[in-house]
Specification:
This is Ig-like domain-containing protein. It comes from Dyadobacter frigoris. By secondary structure, this protein is mainly beta. Helices cover 3% and strands 39% of the residues. Strands 1, 4, 6, 7, 9, 12, 13 and 15 form an eight-stranded antiparallel beta sheet that branches. It has a five-stranded antiparallel beta sheet with strand order 5-8-14-10-11, with no helix packed on it. It is elongated.
Length: 490
């Protein structure tokens, strides 16, 4: 067994390498493979060593250390059932010798592949991609039942994880690509397989980090009705730390349905955390007079349990944003915040959120009349609770005042420090850093508003940042009280 230990909690890379692997990840360290085929069909397994991490038994080349961009390619071609069957398989083992310890039952293994592999799962007629677990390093004599069909999770680097959960102790996972009349000419790239021994749940291998910047590790798509997987364009773009790319919810079928995207965080949220979502109305021109906000909801979960109720996007936005963005022709992105609360109205912990797009019959007609793009998600992440601050009153004869802010989350163990920033506008603006803001020149009677947000220190450098929502602070400037005259008695 080859366990790779790193000094950081996460390994976060892009460009096809890997994104936020757990530091204690256990990668498959040995492999066997085969390519049985008959007739004029063909099959191959290219560069099988690329799918395993480096060990003394295969190579000491550091470039083979997982996670990396190396992959093996499974290919299988059969024009029809009459030309002969074909399949390509690779069996990835988490042990180096037959006497090594087994992987415990109900441990979820994550197999990284290119996004095109998602369309090969579950094809009819015996073709497509299948996963089988075994209690041995090699061979097929001792198969282990898998709990359910593998789930598909999208990653920020544009690839996917297949989540495979054997129900008994096991040592290896076999990935098979079978060709047939349905598949024809198929291929799939497999990067590696790993599991997280420190995982606290079976839907996310990543250990909890109280000080992280709140970006989801993976997301999942789901649809009902006639809406298919292809209707989600670039599912990983909503978690890639960029505001120039987005997951597009697009409709191509003529039957109404529901589209859902689930975003998984690395464990439970901190007390008081909110969810920030940056999104836009779709580009379909016929949506100009359609209120899509009533068709969108966001729901927090703690595992499979609901946290609060599903909140319509309309309720997340101020009236001016609602009318100009969701009811008008604008496709500009906007930012909204949700603070999940329990039945008593208190902030609640959560480990995932689900965004649901209900494609009703009336909305469907607008989408199918032109561009099918109805909705885009640019970014989703957990952010700190909005800071606390109090309104103040200043006198014109003094002309100065100081605004102060604080957060209840500063007492959370190991959360680190926070940075504060003050603004003169509710959204946008450059802002002034500091927990306190000194004001001068307050010599005219009147009222002005300031806004303050916070984010975890170290999260400011990301391309979108992870700020909280802004707290409004009102400054009232008044004339000083008039001192009453005092009559002097001789």
């Amino acid at each position: 067994m080859n366990r790779l230990l790193y000094p950081l909690i996460f390994i976060c890379l892009l460009n096809g390498v890997g994104y936020c692997q757990p530091s204690d990840a256990v990668y498959a360290s040995s492999q066997t493979n085969g390519n049985p085929h008959a007739g004029i069909s063909s099959a191959s397994v290219d560069n099988p060593q690329n799918a395993i991490t480096n060990t003394i038994s295969n190579t000491t080349d550091a470039s083979f250390t997982k996670p990396n961009a190396k992959f093996t390619t499974l290919k299988a071609t059969a024009l029809s059932t009459l030309t002969g069957s074909a399949s390509a398989w690779i069996q990835l083992a988490f042990v180096s010798t037959p006497t090594d310890a087994v992987v415990p039952a109900n441990t979820t293994v994550y197999v990284k592949a290119t996004t095109t592999a998602a369309g090969l799962l579950g094809l009819v007629g015996g073709a497509g991609l299948t996963f089988t677990a075994y209690s041995t390093n090699t061979g097929t004599a001792n198969p282990v039942t898998i709990a359910a069909a593998p789930k598909i999770y999208y990653t920020a680097d544009g690839n996917i994880y297949f989540a495979v959960k054997p129900t008994a102790n096991f040592k290896s996972i076999r990935i098979t690509l079978a060709a047939g009349a349905v598949l024809g000419d198929g291929s799939v790239d497999i990067y590696y397989a790993f599991y997280g021994p420190g995982a606290t749940n079976d839907t996310n291998p990543f250990p909890f980090n109280v000080a992280d910047c709140g970006l989801p590790n993976v997301d999942e798509t789901e649809s009902s009705g006639a809406v298919t997987l292809a209707s989600f364009v670039s599912p990983g773009s909503a978690i890639d730390n960029s505001l120039t790319s987005a997951t597009a919810f697009s409709i191509t079928a003529s039957i109404a349905g529901t589209m859902k995207q689930t975003f998984y965080f690395n464990g439970l949220s901190n007390a008081g955390d909110a969810v920030r979502i940056i999104f836009s109305k779709g580009s379909a021109s016929a949506l100009a007079s359609i209120d899509i906000g009533s068709s969108l909801t966001i729901q927090a979960f703690n595992g499979a349990a609901f946290v609060g109720t599903a909140t319509p996007f309309n309720e997340l936005l101020s009236l001016n944003l609602l009318s100009s963005t969701l009811l008008g022709t604008s496709t500009n992105s906007i930012t909204a915040y949700l603070t999940p609360k329990d039945a008593g109205g208190n902030p609640a912990v959560f480990d995932r959120v689900v965004v649901t797009f209900n494609v009703t019959a009336s909305l469907l007609g607008s989408l199918l009349s032109g561009s099918a793009n109805g909705f885009n998600i640019f970014d989703v992440r957990r952010v700190p609770i909005a800071p606390a601050s109090s309104n103040i009153t200043a006198c014109t004869n003094i002309g100065i005042a100081t605004l102060a802010a604080s957060t209840t989350q500063s007492t959370i163990q190991n959360i680190g420090s926070f940075t504060y920033k003050w603004y003169s506008v509710l959204a946008g603006g450059s802002g002034t850093g500091g927990q306190n803001l000194a004001l001068t020149g307050l010599t005219a009677v009147g009222q002005s508003s300031y806004y303050v947000d916070i984010q975890k220190s170290g999260c400011e450098s990301s391309s979108t940042g992870s700020p909280s929502s802004r707290t409004k602070v009102t400054v009232n400037v008044v004339n000083p009280p008039v001192t009453p005259s005092v009559a002097l008695t001789p």
